[in-house]
Specification:
By secondary structure, this protein is of the alpha/beta class. It contains seven helices and nine strands, in the order E-H-E-E-H-E-H-E-H-E-H-E-H-E-E-H. Helix 4 packs across helix 6 and helix 6 crosses helix 7. The strands form two sheets. The chain has a seven-stranded parallel beta sheet with strand order 2-3-1-4-5-7-9, sandwiched between helices. A two-stranded parallel sheet has the order 6-8. The protein starts with 9 loop residues before the first strand and ends with a helix.
């Protein structure tokens, strides 16, 4: 667990899909849910996870000394770059969610004294259990969207370091191994001796929103084994 003490108040903005994956790994979390007011966050120490909808409120409340980090996603990009999207590349979202994420990024970047950390997907025990259920019930698993998943504790350590250094600008973070939901299903079916999963591959090419930046060494089979070993 991350337990670094920080002198300044820090706000950690987070997309909903990241909250459950990371809040168990990051220490001293105060989670702000929809509908709560700015007056309810004045005692946040050292930082808060905040839904996207609260971005404007937090920007209005925070002082110039308040350090902000926004956890973003590759959805601000579209298309394929084999070498990966660089942090300096101009976002070009093609979904409503991607457009909203980019809007929040822009607000935070304009404010300054902040970091936008774009994260590839995280692999969690709950995700693995859902894939197992799909295998058992013969529900097709996606084999088109290319993933570079990361182990949540590893991501938490990187976030902790960046927060402590008050790093600024835009940083990309992804796992080293490329896979798909279907390929993860193949590993699970091998480990648990299940019938091989059904592959779903829609018409069109791969969807590969690869981020170029910090790469965390990730051996997916080992991560899966560790999750189930810890669960006993």
């Amino acid at each position: 667990m991350s337990r670094l003490k920080r002198k300044k108040k820090v706000f950690l903005f987070c997309n909903k899909f990241l909250i459950e994956s990371l809040k168990r790994e990051l220490g001293n979390i105060f989670e702000i849910t929809e509908g709560k007011t700015v007056t309810q966050i004045k005692e946040v120490k050292p930082y808060a996870i905040i839904f996207d909808k609260e971005t404007e409120s937090i920007l209005k409340y925070s002082t110039k000394k308040t350090y902000l980090m926004y956890l973003s996603t590759p959805e601000v990009f579209s298309g394929i770059l084999e070498l990966g999207f660089q942090s300096k590349d101009m976002p070009n979202p093609h979904t409503k969610e991607g457009e909203e994420i980019y809007r929040c990024e822009t607000l935070i970047k304009e404010r300054g004294h902040s970091l936008i950390l774009r994260l590839a997907s995280l692999i969690t025990y709950e995700d693995l259990e859902e894939i197992k259920k799909s295998i058992i019930h013969r529900i097709a698993l996606d084999n088109r969207v290319q993933l570079y998943p990361m182990y949540p504790p590893d991501v938490a350590r990187v976030i902790d370091t960046l927060l402590s250094l008050e790093s600024k600008g835009v940083v990309h973070l992804r796992g080293s191994e490329r896979t798909t939901q279907y390929k993860i299903g193949l590993i699970l079916s091998d480990i648990f001796k299940l019938i091989p999963p059904v592959s779903s591959f829609d018409k069109g090419g791969d969807i590969n929103l690869k981020l170029a930046g910090i790469v965390l060494p990730t051996i997916i089979r080992q991560v899966i084994t560790d999750f189930y070993r810890l669960k006993g």
